[in-house]
Amino acid sequence: MNIAAWTRSVASFAALLLSLVTAFSAFAAPPSQFPADSVFIPATCGGSLTNDAITDAPSGIGERDIVGDSTHAAFSTWSDETFAYFRIRVGGVPTANGGNAPLAQFGWGVGIDVDGDLNTIEYALVVDGIKEQVNLTDNVTKASLKIWTPTIGTPGYVQVKAVTDGSSFASKGGDHWVTFAIPMQEAVAATAGQAKPLVWGKVRVWVATSSNGFTLDADFMCWDDKNPTDNKSAVSDPIVLGPFVEITTDLTKPASTTTPTLTGNATPNATVTITINGKSTTVTASSTGTWTLDVPASWGLEDGKTYPVKASVTLGSTTKDATGNLSIFLPPTVKLTAPTSQTTSTVTTTTPKIEGTATPDATVTITANGKTGTAIAGSDGKWTFDVPSDWGLKDGTTYDVKASVTK
């Protein structure tokens, strides 16, 4: 090799090394600490707390036995700007020989639906106790897409701890939580080339254990493995992970007030920014992700107008928006004020003046003695109608007078 070639080789190697260092520096290190137990949000299945009877799956017992009831959720989640955290309750000790590490020779994980078709599970995220790693796989082709290590460590991507909420399904060793952290952006990047890439936000998951560390094949949560039916019943209700926001108010229907109430869902405890008519304010989503805004009168929304609405949530460097259009359509109003505001009044002419108020600029229809006429309310809402002589009102007779308005 000549000197020029050697120089080029060194330069190429240095460039490759730099690119590798740059690539790996972008990876999220394991969390320095896991979230407090109190922040985890219990997931539900069919509106009820995620549950699973002990020993319902003969092939998944002990540390592989997912457990839960109406008081103790089998599965909970949490997310921050970097990680999605998945917590599974098991009726045993999921570490080898009951120690601190390594993990027992099984797996625990979640299957993720990304397309709304509950007949297929697109991705699996599984804590692999056999190879001591966390796997992201294409659940259809079983291709490995991403691996995170270490599992249990200081720090690591997996935490195993005895439960602190008093559940006692296990007859030996006590109930434990297997909690694992997934760097959300890395998972998204790993699936970018797939036909259906992973998108965080509102997702539905299956929770189960694994005999090989990457395939979910035993003890599906919310599903009685002794009496299996369609396992679509085992999928969780939608859960929110990562930055997410939506407006749940039906914006296809006009609001009947200039100070409407808007509602929505978002990342739990996130700050939601709502903007309408050039005015903005913030509200905080609840611990379950719901938010509400009563639009203040000072925002100046007007009858008959439509305004763009935007709700935004930012976690870290990622912002998610939900948009729509809010229309204001106040119900029409009309009121008789003369000859008198009383229910019954007496006039001294057969061609009286009838007066009232209504929605500004509205057309008011006045009816009496089977005859109909109209008046236009002014910009101040006042209107006047002179009953014509051909309406045939007669002395000593009582007539019903009706004023109505439509929009």
List the helices and strands and how they pair.
Layout: H1 3-25, E1 41-42, E2 44-45, E3 48-49, E4 75-79, E5 83-90, E6 107-113, E7 123-128, E8 133-138, E9 144-148, E10 158-162, E11 176-183, H2 184-190, E12 201-210, E13 239-241, E14 245-247, E15 261-266, E16 271-276, E17 279-284, E18 290-294, E19 306-315, E20 318-327, E21 334-338, E22 353-358, E23 363-368, E24 371-376, E25 382-386, E26 401-405
Antiparallel strand pairs: 1-4, 2-3, 4-5, 5-11, 6-7, 6-12, 7-8, 8-9, 10-11, 12-13, 14-15, 15-18, 16-17, 16-19, 19-20, 21-22, 22-25, 23-24, 23-26
How would you describe this protein?
By secondary structure, the protein is mainly β. It contains 2 helices and 26 strands. The chain has a 6-stranded antiparallel beta sheet, covered by helices on one side. Strand 4 (75-79) and strand 5 form a beta hairpin.
Spatial arrangement of strands, main beta sheet: 9-8-7-6-12-13
Report the span from N to C terminus.
Answer: 89 Å
Largest sheet: 6 strands, antiparallel
Counting DSSP H or I runs of 4 or more residues, the number of helices is 2
The number of E-state strands comes to 26
| Low-pLDDT segments | 1-26
Structural class computed from helices and strand pairing? mainly beta
String of helices and strands: HEEEEEEEEEEEHEEEEEEEEEEEEEEE
List keywords for this structure.
single chain, 407 residues, mainly beta, 6-stranded antiparallel β-sheet, 5-stranded antiparallel β-sheet, 7% helix, disordered N terminus
Short summary:
The chain is mainly beta and 407 residues long. It has helices at residues 3-25, 184-190; strands at 41-42, 44-45, 48-49, 75-79, 83-90, 107-113, 123-128, 133-138, 144-148, 158-162, 176-183, 201-210, 239-241, 245-247, 261-266, 271-276, 279-284, 290-294, 306-315, 318-327, 334-338, 353-358, 363-368, 371-376, 382-386, 401-405.
